[in-house]
């Protein structure tokens, strides 16, 4: 595995602003920090890893690349490997959305001075977007890619703008047709981009939810699943509205071309 051989890692690397000091949390073998420093995108990097096995492989990989002076490898849980103001950008990739939000929440003070978060949740991306929005971070980019049969979403966020005498706000969530709940689920910038992978993902998610809903409707003790049932019903409605909206925009756009 290397960044060059991974569409997912390449896309994450493209979201890192040039010249930023970066930390890669849950870095595994430190492939991403090594690539960013070697290519001159980041002047220095920190690779944070909790588990001993990947940590040793990270040391080996960085040493072989001749970058042990530029890349610090630290063992620790989440953002505990950082001190406030030490880096400009933080990457957290390849984890569940709930875990990513807990990492950010548990050590939020260590985000002081950070100008960019690059996050790639494997699941529950909506929980990450919701956390960013409610904690004063503004989405500036979203990407969706497919690799080895899996679809991945990634996002970049910066400290949110402030209207005069008001709380931080994120203009990404100003959409003429879709509500904030729609956009937390599917991604406010992804829904504007549309595309084949976006539609494949949400057609698949719609099918999974419809199947689960059908199974729950047949359950003998329905009261035990009513909350989840209602959530799936709401999400099915949201996904259908999003697909209808983006399909309509695509058709309109295609029809306007000469």
Any overview of this molecule?
With 258 residues, this protein is of the alpha/beta class. The chain is 44% helix and 20% strand. The chain has helices spanning 7-14, 31-38, 52-64, 97-106, 125-134, 180-186, 188-193, 196-217, 226-255, and strands at residues 22-25, 45-49, 71-75, 89-95, 116-121, 137-147, 150-159, 161-162, 168-169. Strands 3-2-1-4-5-7-6 form a seven-stranded mixed beta sheet, sandwiched between helices. A hairpin with a 5-residue loop joins strand 8 and strand 9. It is globular.
Secondary-structure map:
Layout: H1 7-14, E1 22-25, H2 31-38, E2 45-49, H3 52-64, E3 71-75, E4 89-95, H4 97-106, E5 116-121, H5 125-134, E6 137-147, E7 150-159, E8 161-162, E9 168-169, H6 180-186, H7 188-193, H8 196-217, H9 226-255
Parallel strand pairs: 1-2, 1-4, 2-3, 4-5
Antiparallel strand pairs: 5-7, 6-7, 8-9
Helix pairs in contact: 4-5, 5-6, 6-9, 8-9
């Amino acid at each position: 595995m290397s960044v060059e051989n991974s569409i997912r890692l390449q896309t994450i690397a493209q979201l890192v602003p040039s010249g930023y000091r970066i930390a890669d949390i849950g870095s595994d073998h430190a492939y991403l920090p090594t690539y960013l420093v070697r290519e001159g995108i980041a002047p220095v990097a920190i690779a944070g890893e909790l588990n001993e096995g990947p940590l040793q492989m990270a040391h080996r990989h960085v040493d072989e690349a001749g970058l042990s002076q530029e890349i610090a490898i630290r063992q620790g849980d989440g953002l505990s490997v950082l001190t406030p103001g030490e880096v400009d950008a933080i990457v957290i990739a390849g984890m569940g959305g709930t875990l990513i939000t807990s990492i950010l929440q548990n050590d939020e003070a260590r985000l002081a001075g950070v100008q960019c978060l690059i996050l790639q949740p494997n699941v529950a991306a909506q929980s990450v977007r919701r956390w960013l929005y409610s904690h004063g971070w503004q989405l500036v980019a979203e990407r969706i890619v497919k690799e080895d049969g899996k679809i991945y979403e990634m996002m970049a966020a910066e400290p949110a703008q402030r209207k005069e005498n008001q709380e931080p706000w994120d203009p990404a969530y100003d959409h003429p047709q879709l509500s904030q709940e729609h956009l937390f689920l599917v991604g406010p910038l992804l829904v504007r981009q549309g595309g084949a992978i976006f539609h494949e993902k949400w057609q698949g998610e719609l099918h999974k939810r419809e199947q689960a809903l059908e199974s729950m409707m047949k359950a003998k003790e329905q009261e035990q699943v009513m909350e989840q049932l209602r959530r799936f019903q709401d999400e099915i409605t949201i996904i259908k509205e999003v697909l209808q909206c983006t399909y309509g925009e695509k058709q309109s756009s295609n029809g306007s071309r000469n």
